[in-house]
Design goal:
alpha/beta, Aminopeptidase, Glucose Oxidase, domain 1, eight-stranded mixed sheet
């Protein structure tokens, strides 16, 4: 029932909203989510704020945009499709010739029925997008000396802000699983709304469970600048507590399942997602991290190094409808969302169950004062002590208990015993 509910929310309420990396579109989207989950917290970060090597850009909003011909007829109308306007377009109110105007009109000759999605975040620009068939018709209809009025009612606020949402489901442990998705594109279903819809289904599911072992952190952010901003505000806590997690993107069609593992393909998240596909008996495609393009870039960047992988169905940039008006709710189906939800839910459940120890000390701890080391140094060291020390070598927050057991060649039950002893002595968490 919840999948149907959130699918309808995405299709009927969220899809028409004109979103960008800043502005009222994101706020409206997050307010709709908050109506369903009151615990969602909404944050504003002022424009101009330094976030690592970036700055939060000026806030952009648009009320209307259109092109009027010599007959006073609107030939391009933002209100009919928000994809008609190039994202972050400058305000315009001016007369142009046909030649001048058509330099600013973008289309896709190889996909003549599709309106392209184009944005210019950091370079000042304005323009329109229409399908190629319509562009050809307009070119035939008008003479070169015909005049057109262009109106773009947009504005940039230097004292604006970047908006993001965060919802935390507390668990018995402070150790966290991070689920990230973005809310910064206009009317596209798979590339934009499938991730948030699946996230809402996950929140609905896990918030109902009692005695959740680990804490779940869900964030709804603008892509790239949003993850950079979020990391700049929360990095210390994330590095301390996050033991795994996923970026959810393009997860709502009925085509193949796919994923992108973390940079070195050796984290708990990598293991859990591949185990999830195996458990569900799903064939999947694995993409190299060299093919990255979403927020997995930020979470895996040097110095950040969070154990975050990505879950897709048809990966961004790999399906024909990507970044066009054809990416709609004919492509994203309730069945597709349900399949994406099952995979993500299963991977999270596996992460929740995993014990991922992390050494609490720099260098080798003094074991003797904790009665964990023989009083006499002999030729043949105690095997248990050796295993204990080997365990600590691989308790780096990247390996779960099963993996450590395999590495140190000690059966799982004995490895679990070692973990309990070390935890009791506060040597691992």
């Amino acid at each position: 029932m919840s999948i149907k509910k959130f699918y309808k929310l995405g299709k009927n309420q969220l899809f028409p909203i004109c979103r960008s990396i800043t502005g009222n579109g994101i706020r409206k989207t997050l307010r709709s989510i908050k109506k369903n989950f009151s615990k969602l917290k909404i944050y504003e970060v002022p424009s101009g704020t330094r976030v690592f090597d970036w700055r939060v850009p000026d806030e952009w909003n648009v009320k209307d945009a259109y092109v009027i011909d010599k007959y006073n007829k609107k030939i391009i109308d933002f209100k009919k499709s928000n994809l008609h306007l190039v994202g972050y377009s400058l305000p315009v109110n001016k007369i142009f010739t046909k030649k001048q105007l058509f330099k600013k009109i973008h289309s896709l000759p190889k996909q003549p029925k599709a309106i392209p999605y184009i944005v210019s975040y950091y370079n000042k620009y304005w323009g329109f997008c229409i399908n190629h068939n319509e562009k050809k018709n307009l070119e035939k209809r008008y003479k070169n000396n015909d005049k057109f009025k262009v109106v773009i009612k947009s504005n940039f606020k230097k004292k604006g802000s970047l908006t993001y949402g965060e919802l935390i489901i507390p668990g018995k442990s402070k150790k966290e699983i991070l689920i990230s998705t973005y809310v910064c594109h206009p009317s596209m279903a798979n590339n934009e709304l499938s991730g948030p819809i699946v996230s809402l289904c996950l929140i609905n599911h896990f918030s109902k469970l009692k005695k959740l072992q680990k804490t779940l952190r869900f964030i709804f952010i603008p892509e790239t600048i949003g993850s950079i901003t979020y990391l700049s505000k929360n990095l210390n806590n994330l590095k301390k507590n996050v033991i795994g997690g996923y970026n959810l993107s393009c997860i709502g069609d009925e085509r193949q399942h796919s994923c992108m593992l973390s940079k070195y393909e050796n984290t708990s998240s990598d293991v859990a997602i591949t185990e999830a596909y195996k458990k569900l008996k799903i064939k999947y495609k694995k993409y190299s991290f060299l093919e990255r393009g979403s927020d997995e870039r930020q979470y895996n960047s040097p110095g950040i190094d969070l154990p975050i992988a990505s879950i897709f169905r048809s990966k961004y940039g790999e399906y024909p409808e990507y970044h066009t008006s054809l990416d709609n709710f004919n492509l994203v189906t309730e069945k597709g969302i349900s399949g994406g939800f099952r995979v993500a839910k299963t991977a999270i459940e596996l992460l929740i169950k995993k014990i991922i120890p992390k050494n609490n000390f720099l260098c080798e701890p003094q074991m003797g004062k904790r009665n964990l080391y023989p009083n006499l140094s002999t030729k043949n060291k105690n095997i248990f002590t050796r295993n204990l020390m080997s365990f600590l070598q691989y308790a780096d927050g990247k390996n779960d208990l099963k993996k450590i057991s395999k590495i140190i060649k000690v059966e799982y039950k004995k490895t679990l015993k070692i973990y309990n002893i070390l935890q009791k002595n506060r040597l691992v968490s």
